[in-house]
Design brief:
single chain, alpha/beta, six-stranded parallel sheet
């Protein structure tokens, strides 16, 4: 049929999740789209010439596929969650498609969608929130999109090296070996979006630079996107130094979690100071993510919420 739009689902787990027990999920999708969904083998089809419905259908199946591929265990909740988010936001326009990526990055919550929008509309964005809320991963994905779409020429990612109960001096190896564990999460974020070989090639060609914060002093970074991760562990002086590295045609993304500050107690966090000092500057985006935005194991969300509740009582 000319008005039939078909999606082939090669993965049995994804197809099972889409359909649900006794086709319960399929019925939810049909209600959402307002038209029947037909199944034949590993094919899902709708009969419509409406491009908006076709786009919604494709988005829903792609999002379910991403969730299943990411190893989500709450299969019964996936479809309802995807449909709920699709109602709220134009997910196709707010998603992050990195050229050559192994996956498309979608926001899982409204706050994450707001975060992506802020990254697109501001040249400087502060994002602070709970562990696992996606603040670093989303910033890295959007930065890779900018670089590989040739909007900017390079990506610079940095973190302060602050000892959280451990001493660098006791770690084995030379300086690079000692620092690498602090930077490993940034490699992990990039490798969730791009093939490992691509990340390695971009680093070797210096299109991507990953370095400790101390390496930023004295530089002016033009035509770049710069990410400061773990910003809660900067001092006021370090934060000022970093923010003033921004050059022409550059974007700066700052991420951190103010509940995990590893600085000595007498030293105030540069992230807290900067957000208070700069909050009234319209050109700077400020985004806060909470336990509701945590997309790791569901147990992590409960742990983060418990700590948030304790802080509210204090």
């Amino acid at each position: 049929m000319e008005n039939e739009y078909t999606i082939v689902v090669p993965d049995a787990d994804i197809l099972s999740c889409v359909c649900g027990t006794n086709d319960s999920n399929l019925k939810l999708i049909e209600e959402h789209l307002g038209i029947p969904v037909f199944t034949k083998g590993n094919q899902l089809s709708v009969e419509t010439e409406n491009s908006v419905i076709r786009q919604q259908f494709r988005y829903i199946i792609d999002r379910i596929a991403d969730e299943v591929s990411d190893g989500s265990k709450n299969l019964d909740d996936i479809v309802a969650s995807v449909l709920n988010m699709e109602k709220k936001v134009d997910m196709e326009s707010i998603s992050i498609l990195v050229p050559g990526a192994i996956r498309k990055v979608y926001p899982h919550t409204q706050h994450q969608a707001d975060y992506i929008h802020s990254l697109r509309t501001h040249n400087m964005v502060f994002c602070f929130g709970a562990a696992g809320s996606g603040k670093t991963f989303i910033a890295v994905a959007e930065a890779l999109r900018l670089v590989l779409s040739h909007k900017v020429s390079r990506l610079v990612i940095t973190r302060p090296v602050v000892e959280a109960g451990e001493s660098l001096g006791f770690l084995p190896g030379d300086l690079e070996d000692k620092i690498n564990p602090y930077l490993r999460p940034l490699y992990d974020s990039m490798e969730m979006v791009l093939p490992k070989e691509t990340v390695k090639r971009l680093i070797e060609s210096e299109i991507i630079e990953i370095a400790p914060l101390a390496y930023m002093r004295g530089r002016t970074l033009n035509n770049s996107v710069i990410i400061l991760d773990e910003a809660q562990n900067t001092t006021k002086e370090q934060m000022k130094m970093f923010l003033t590295r921004m050059g022409e045609n550059s974007k700066v993304f700052i991420t951190g979690d103010i509940t995990q500050i590893d600085l000595p107690k007498r030293i105030p966090s540069g992230l807290i100071h900067a957000t208070e000092l700069l909050q009234d500057i319209e050109e700077i985006g400020m985004i806060k993510l909470t336990s509701e935005d945590v997309v790791r194991n569901p147990l992590v969300k409960k742990i983060v919420r418990a700590y948030e509740n304790e802080q509210e009582r204090e």
